[in-house]
Design brief:
4 helices; 86 residues; single chain; mainly alpha
Length: 86
């Protein structure tokens, strides 16, 4: 999940996982398959819906990272200029 959100902008990469977890806490008990997928982080280990959701997100995140590469934020070549120099 982090790989997917990191491609949308490193500064706000935390918002999607946090929003998803927040929704999981507020959602009704997972009785249907879509609700089990939506609340996969809170399901017991070994649950088919939770395992498959985690696997799909891991593969999608890895593929997104492989295609987009590491973040293009601050690095040695994009560092802001020193404030001490005129």
């Amino acid at each position: 999940m982090a790989g997917i959100t990191a491609d949308s902008g490193g500064r706000y990469a935390w918002t999607l996982p946090f929003a998803w977890l927040s929704f999981s806490f507020l959602a009704p008990p997972p009785t249907s398959a879509p609700m089990q997928v939506a609340t996969w982080m809170l399901l017991p280990s070994g649950t088919a819906a939770g395992t498959w959701t985690a696997l799909v997100l891991a593969v999608a995140g890895t593929a997104a990272y492989a295609v987009a590469g590491p973040g293009r934020g601050r690095g040695p070549d994009r560092a802001p200029p020193d404030r001490d120099t005129p």
